[in-house]
Amino acid sequence: MRRAYICSPLSGNISGNIENAKRYARYIFKCGMAPVIPHFYALVLNDEIPDERKLGMQAGLSLLWVCDEVWVFGDEITEGMKKEIIFAEKLNIKVKYISEKELKKTEVI
């Protein structure tokens, strides 16, 4: 199964953004791919502690090596997301953008 890395906001509203990552993972499954979800590192690391945030970012970037694509979700691109996108492009990994509008078309009400 091909793997898609979830690239979306985390900082700020961490619990809400983790819930969004779950939505994005379901979308990726519906598209026939396996989601790679770096957001779950925030469940064991404290994103508000700079060294732990850095560790989580490094761990997330290391996952890109095994991904086939990076899917950028939402209508906002944060600084952390920019780093993921740039790194993916350096690795020649396809980057796909999915807006909230596009995502909502596929969700069941």
UniProtKB/TrEMBL annotation:
Domain DUF7768: from-to ranges: 4-98
InterPro entries listed in its UniProt record: DUF7768
Gene3D superfamilies, sorted: Hypothetical protein PA1492
Pfam families: DUF7768
Protein name as it appears in the record: DUF4406 domain-containing protein
Species assigned in the record: Ruminococcoides intestinale
